[in-house]
Specification:
This protein has about 120 residues and is mainly β. The chain is built from no helices and eleven strands. About 0% of the residues lie in helices and about 55% in strands.
Amino acid sequence: VQLVESGGGLVQPGGSLRLSCAASGFTFSSYIMRWYRQAPGKERELVAAITSSSRDTYYADSVKGRFTISRDNARNTVYLQMNSLKPEDTAVYYCNAWKLGYDYWGQGTQVTVSS
């Protein structure tokens, strides 16, 4: 099982980034996919989630209206489009695949928002 995040980096406030998470080794289309983040000295928090069919999505209040989660089950990939980035969005972003009895994590990708 692998979840490999990419797309992180340094961006100025107000800028955009698109994170990708490529999955392999399990039936991607059966899993709820989530993006979490963890800033230095803070607990890991759920940022966004999407159901297996993309019918339903969830966003933390702090990112609602700025971030968009999507998935491509044909490519076994989940995305997080991040717009209007703020310094407080700086964190390591983690991809997570979940269904009852199974819970997989990626290694994380650093997002830094700074001028």
